[in-house]
Amino acid sequence: PDEEFLSNRDLKSAQEKYLELCMETIPQEVRTVLDVGCGTGEMLKRLTDRGLQGKGMVPDPLLAEKISEKVGHDNLILSKFEDYNDRVAKFDLVMFMESFGYIRDMKASLEKAVSLLNPGGYIFISDFFAKIRDKKDLISKNFHNHNDFQKTHSENPDIDLVFHKDITPNTLPTIRFCNEMIFEYVLPILKVVAKSITESSALQKRPYLLKLLNFIYKKKLQAKFDHNLDRLNQIKPDHYLKACAYELFLFQKRV
């Protein structure tokens, strides 16, 4: 939590530490894993490299093709989690790494995950959770509410919480680094580019065209810019700590 990033190398290092933390959370007796929404396949490759039988689930054919280059076609399931209906396949662990928030029905998701487990199997969830309720807030709008999730999993009769870790402070260096890149580099560059276009010799020689473009696009572009700037302000460190929790949960299926 106290480290500051000096370059994108630190970002890569932080990602490695995060993946290792997730690996360490997997109980030793686990042999088969379903990685739901397996991203670019990094965690899935790590699982298979360490001798676990990992299956990755992804809904997009193009992404599946890319992931297959790392883990092979046989280790992929092309499906949305909500649509998956294999009644035979069972796993020791169902894993959601930043994918649980995309599945809107938490209760149904947990119930389905339990149905895919072997006796005594586990559900691992690592994700963002919103600590506030505000439809205009980026985090609140896009992720499950923390209190709602607590209520949902505590009321599930088939699972017990066996491990929990709040790593929100540990993610702050990443948030600060991203904010620095956006507000000190990306936005100033965009402003310079926009200014260079409006002050270009081609437009200066055609003032009528510049006026026309300003008349048609200026208000729309300004409104779009203000909207996106407001969204970016919502992931500044202070607001992030207020509105968001990044937590790891490990549940075990009751025998």
Task: Summarize it.
By secondary structure, the chain is α/β, with parallel strands linked by helices. The chain contains ten helices and seven strands.
Explain what this protein looks like in three dimensions:
- This protein is of the alpha/beta class and about 260 residues long.
- The chain contains 10 helices and 7 strands.
- It has helices at about 10-25, 40-50, 60-70, 105-115, 140, 145-155, 170-200, 200-205, 205-235, 235-245, and strands at about 30-35, 55-60, 75-80, 90-95, 115-130, 160-165, 245-255.
- The chain has a 7-stranded mixed sheet, with helices on both faces.
- The radius of gyration is 22 Å and the shape is elongated.
- It starts with 7 loop residues before the first helix and ends with a strand.
Largest sheet: 7 strands, mixed
Tally of extended strands? 7
| Count of helical stretches | 10
Rg, please? 22 Å
Helix fraction by DSSP (H/I, runs of at least 4): 40-55%
Q: What is the SS-derived class? A: alpha/beta
- The average pLDDT score comes to 88
- The neighbouring-strand order within the major sheet is 3-2-1-4-5-7-6
> What fraction of residues sit in β-strands?
15-25%
What is the N-to-C order of secondary-structure elements (H for helix, E for strand)? HEHEHEEHEHHEHHHHE
Q: Name the poorly predicted regions.
A: none
| Gap from first CA to last CA | 38 Å
- Could you say which overall geometry the principal axes of the C-alpha atoms support? elongated
